[in-house]
């Protein structure tokens, strides 16, 4: 009984339904991407700076040429990161000071209000960088674009 055999694929060919991983930029681990975001470095190469000053972002990474400037509204998602970190820290601080230090809520309201105004401004850049890193984690094609 002759069994039909699958045709041998020449070296370098990829079976249907599978993509060849011909990336010269392999996807870094999740922790590496986040750490690069915290350090304000390019998520692809880890070398290029993501900011030229406090707010201005370059069009592309100076080291690997990754497009940093995305479509309009792309970085709006970074406000979720900014808000989340601010809310968690403010809530944890309030609970710690209220429950363990027994400080009245009236005493804490204005300092915590000031924290909620100043802290998001201070982590604005990290929130944007982490948002870009998360985009690279979930859409791996970004790492291979020119």
Topology:
Layout: H1 30-38, H2 78-99, H3 105-122, H4 124-138
Give a structural overview.
It holds the Pfam family DUF983. Keywords: Membrane, Transmembrane, Transmembrane helix. This is DUF983 domain-containing protein. This protein has about 150 residues and is mainly α. The chain has one domain. The chain is built from 4 helices and no strands. Helix 1 runs antiparallel to helix 4 and helix 2 crosses helix 4. It is elongated. The relative contact order is 0.17. The N terminus is likely disordered.
Strand portion: under 5%
Q: Major sheet, described briefly? A: none
What is the averaged pLDDT score?
A: 84
Radius of gyration: 23 Å
Q: Given the structure, what is the number of helices?
A: 4
Order of helices and strands: HHHH
Query: How many separate domains?
Result: 1
Poorly predicted runs: 1-22
Number of strands: 0
Rounded to the nearest angstrom, the distance between the terminal CA atoms is: 52 Å
The geometry reads as elongated
Secondary structure: helix percent: 40-55%
Structural class: mainly alpha
């Amino acid at each position: 009984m002759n069994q039909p055999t699958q045709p041998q694929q020449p070296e370098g060919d990829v079976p249907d339904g599978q993509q060849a991983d011909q990336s010269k930029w392999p996807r870094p681990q999740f922790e590496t991407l986040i750490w690069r975001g915290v350090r304000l470095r390019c998520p692809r190469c880890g070398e290029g700076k993501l900011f030229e000053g406090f707010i201005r972002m370059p069009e592309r990474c100076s080291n690997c040429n990754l497009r940093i400037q995305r479509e309009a509204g792309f970085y709006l998602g970074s406000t979720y990161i900014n808000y989340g970190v601010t809310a968690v820290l403010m809530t944890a601080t309030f609970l710690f000071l209220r429950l363990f230090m027994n400080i009245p809520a009236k005493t804490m309201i204005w300092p915590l209000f000031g924290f909620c105004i100043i802290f998001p401004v201070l982590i604005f850049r990290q929130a944007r960088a982490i948002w870009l890193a998360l985009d690279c984690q979930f859409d791996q094609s970004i790492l291979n674009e020119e």
